[in-house]
Amino acid sequence: MEILYLLLPLAILLGLSGLVALIWSIRRGQFDDMEGPAHRILFEDDSDLLPIHPPPEKK
């Protein structure tokens, strides 16, 4: 029974810290665009990574 004096405040503290982290992330805009990054990965253009000029030929 004495363990409840430790576990109950610990559980409340852990729950409140999770709630604070959730509110903080919502205010910072972490959940504004949930589908955009998934679509950007599928349709990302990799032509920017290709070299513009071919490498010089070795003689």
Short characterization:
The protein is an all-alpha fold and 59 residues long. It has helices at residues 4-27, 36-42. The N and C termini lie far apart (85 Å).
Could you explain the architecture of this structure?
With 59 residues, the protein is mainly α. The protein is 53% helix and 0% strand. The protein has 2 helices and no strands. The longest helix is centred in the N-terminal third of the chain and has 24 residues, at 4-27. The radius of gyration is 25 Å and the shape is elongated. It starts with a helix and ends in a 17-residue tail after the last helix. The mean pLDDT is 86.
Quick check: average pLDDT?
A: 86
Main sheet attributes: strand count, strand direction, barrel closure: none
What share of residues are in beta strands? under 5%
What gross morphology would you assign? elongated
Which oligomeric state applies? single chain
- Using only C-alpha atoms, the radius of gyration works out to 25 Å
Q: How many helical elements? A: 2
Q: Name the poorly predicted regions.
A: none
- Number of DSSP-assigned strands: 0
Helix fraction bin: 40-55%
Structural class: mainly alpha
**SSE order:** HH
Please give the alpha-carbon distance between the first and last residues.
85 Å
